[in-house]
Design brief:
There is one protein chain. The chain has helices spanning 16-43, 59-78, 125-138, 147-163, 168-176, 203-206, 217-224; strands at 84-96, 109-120, 181-186, 189-196, 229-240. The protein is α+β, with helices and mostly antiparallel strands and 241 residues long.
Length: 241
């Protein structure tokens, strides 16, 4: 139908079916666009640069400096405790940051390193844990917890096994094998102390952040014997971009 002046009525251009199809197309475009936006937000912005190479400067230089300092820290922690030193191990890597509406890190990559050393020890575990806590506190490390809590848990677990028929020696070893560990921090750095009643069957898989420098139970036992062991490990960020 035409109005005066020859102007066509817009209603003559589209049938009801065409109007529905157009409306559905518009809705589809909006939905797809929204999903793409949400996906981009959840995935984070694309980090164009490749991960830092641990073997190229300046990353390699900072890594070696960090490992040297951390090895000294571990030795300083253990020196007054009468421990028998064993093998050392390390692991380093870089983690990609996140950039989305939920998490927006202030880095594209953060590179961290762990340095650990096995030690053999003997004696009373509660007494050792108390000395360890005192030594760490004297060096500026703190855990935010009272070691008496860990000692009580240890004693309760030992007594439960003795009542079940285990000898005191076996009960103490079994409790330590249940991944007793404590963590301390000094600024952004962390130290983890892990205990075991004996050398793990596969040290590297039991404490996986150790490298191939520690890969054999026989090698560890050669230095430490088959008694209780402790692993002192420091964790530190040494590079970010």
């Amino acid at each position: 139908m035409c109005h005066a002046g020859g102007v066509s009525d817009p209603g003559d251009k589209f049938t009801p079916l065409q109007v529905i199809v157009i409306a559905l197309a518009i809705v589809a475009v909006v939905v797809v666009g929204g999903l793409m936006l949400v996906h981009a937000s959840l995935s984070g912005r694309d980090v164009r640069q490749p991960p830092p190479s641990l073997t190229d400067a300046p990353v390699s230089t900072r890594l070696e400096a960090a490992k040297t300092a951390m090895t000294a820290d571990v030795a300083e922690i253990s020196a007054p405790l009468g421990l028998r030193p064993g093998q050392t191990g390390s692991q380093a890597g870089c983690e990609q940051g996140q950039h989305n509406f939920k998490i927006n890190t202030d880095y594209d990559y953060s590179c961290t390193v762990r340095v650990g050393r096995f030690y053999g020890w003997s004696g009373d575990f509660p007494t050792f844990l108390t000395k360890l806590d005192t030594q760490l506190n004297s060096l500026g490390w703190s855990s935010g917890r009272d070691p008496k809590q860990d000692i009580k848990r240890y004693n309760d677990d030992v007594q439960r096994r003795i009542k079940a028929g285990m000898s005191a020696k076996d009960a103490k070893a079994a409790v330590l094998d249940e991944a007793y560990s404590v963590s301390y921090h000094r600024g952004p750095d962390w130290v983890d102390i892990s205990f075991a009643g004996s050398v793990p069957q596969n040290p590297r898989s039991s404490w996986m952040y150790l490298s191939d420098e520690v890969n054999s139970r026989a090698a560890v036992e050669e230095l430490l014997g088959d008694g209780p062991v402790v692993l002192v490990t420091e964790h530190r960020e040494f590079f970010r971009v």
